[in-house]
Amino acid sequence: LRVIDVPAAAGGRILRVLMNADENRAVALLAEPEPEEGAGSVPSPPPAPRAGGDPGRHWRWRQLMAERLAAALDPRRMGVEGIYLIGSACSGTARAESDIDLLVHVRGDERQQAALLAWLDGWSEALTVQNHERTGVWVRPMLDVKLVTDEDIAGRTGPAALIGAATHAARRLPLGPDEEQPGS
For the segment 56-76, what is each residue's pLDDT rounded down to a tens digit? Predict the structure, then answer.
């Protein structure tokens, strides 16, 4: 990894990165810096909320992001047995202001759980920004994570009761690059 001072190396230009989360693509380019807001400049308005359009786009995006999160997780390092999607993203009723509800089945020690929660906080913040860019709506935190243990699942207590439930069941997400979706 090499860190450089882009404006110094590029004649005052800045590196601008444009990302499309829907297509998992990004492009970087050198651009002239925008004038700072202040005397003689007019501040640009915030992006307008994008209402209307496909009513299913909110829950589909949330499901896709939950699947990507689970696929990016190293379950052994984080002490995770499973990740389950619940709530409006799972039922297909999520709106622009909806969060993403996850149950995380943990078996790891305290150190692993602390690392997991920090990792999930990073995802939550990134998804908060992406949701705002897509919809104009801030949702903080974007991830609503509930940790469940073997005992919670065996006792069918609290949100763990949704795992294997007959109605409103939690949907298991494949973990890491090697786990296949159940039933596939």
Answer: 789 999 999 999 999 999 999
Q: Return the closest-CA partner of residue 25 out of 16, 33, 17.
A: 17
Give the model confidence (pLDDT) of 91-142 as tens digits.
999 999 999 999 999 998 999 999 999 999 999 999 999 999 988 899 999 9
Query: Which residue do the tokens 């359009």 mark?
Result: 53
Is the pTM value of this prediction over 0.90?
no
DSSP class per residue in the chain: -----HHHHTTT-EEEEEEETTTTEEEEEEEPPPPPSSTT--PPPPPPP--SS-TTHHHHHHHHHHHHHHHH--HHHHTEEEEEEEHHHHHT---TT--EEEEEEE---HHHHHHHHHHHHHHHHHHHHHHHHHHS---SSSEEEEEE-HHHHHHT-GGGGGTT-SSS--EEE--TTTPPPTT-
Strands 80-86 and 143-148: unpaired
Q: Are 82 and 66 in contact (CB under 8 A)?
A: no
Contact 158, 151 (CB under 8 A): no
